[in-house]
Amino acid sequence: MPAPERIPPGSLRAVELLDLLAKGELTVRGQVREASNAVLFCSVAYEGQEADCVYKPVAGERPLWDFPDGTLAQREVAAYEVSEATGWGLVPPTVLRDGPYGQGMVQVWIEGDPSASLLALVDGDDPGEGWKAVGPAQIDEDRTALLVHADDVRLRRLAVLDAVINNGDRKGGHLLPAPDGRLYAIDHGVTFHVDDKLRTLLWGWAGEPLSGEALEVLARLNASLAPGAPLAARLAELITPAEVAAVRIRVAALRSAGRHPEPSGQWPAIPWPPV
């Protein structure tokens, strides 16, 4: 029997990748040890095709006191569904399925481009052309620097997505620019809370007007989240009714304000560690 053909993520349509992830045979190849929950590097093979993927079993999740409902895996899949509804394709194809260690999230593995620079530290108060200021960062006892991120349309879209899903943990290591020029974002287990928990490195547009593109996307999301609409029905399978309602409220608030959200000042606005 011939070996399965290894498929680069960009060579298949999302629906084909979802089919591969959902139906394929998962083989554990290793573990991402620096992760706070169980993250297994796997291959998935189905009908002569094979791809690398990440498998996060629910059994390997550490309970979070402030996220008592549902699972990290369900919220990861919900984030993918919202990302797809925007049309921006910022989250790699993701499914919920059984695996070697029980039900979990399975997501296409994205190999980031190490040459791409989206974050930097600069001296002084001026972020420089092509960069947006996040805030001061303590380098050591005697030195601070300005943390900046690229003034990049892909990051700006992600900032909007994070505001919609209420991402409480947007770190630099979760940004994966791919060699083909696309940007992917990973690790969405701490999302969709009913309370405002937005913590992110992408504050560079805080208070600025939303782009016309973003407002069009939010209008489509608003329609897709109406009771009985496909996205609302799918989210209802993954998160609580109160969390689905909170997504509607956040989308409506963003449309009404017409601006990127700003830090509330009630808690740290940047996750720790930031990278």
Bulk shape: globular
Average pLDDT figure: 91
> Per DSSP, what share of the residues sits in E-state strands of 2 or more residues?
15-25%
Instruction: Characterize the largest beta sheet: strand count, sense, and whether it forms a barrel.
Output: 6 strands, mixed
Count of helical regions: 6
Rg over CA atoms: 19 Å
Number of strands: 11
Can you summarize this structure?
27% of the residues lie in helices and 24% in strands.
What does this structure look like?
- With 275 residues, the protein is an alpha+beta fold.
- Helix content is 27%, strand content 24%.
- The protein is built from six helices and eleven strands.
- The chain has helices at 14-23, 72-86, 153-165, 212-224, 230-236, 241-257; strands at residues 5-6, 25-31, 40-46, 49-57, 94-99, 102-108, 119-122, 131-140, 143-150, 175-177, 183-185.
- The strands form three sheets. Strands 1, 2, 3, 4, 5 and 6 form a six-stranded mixed sheet that branches. A three-stranded antiparallel sheet has the order 7-9-8, with no helix packed on it.
- A hairpin with an 8-residue loop joins strand 2 and strand 3.
- Helix 4 runs antiparallel to helix 6 (241-257).
- The chain is globular.
- It comes from Streptomyces lavendulocolor.
- InterPro entries: CHP03843 (IPR022292).
- This is SCO1664 family protein.
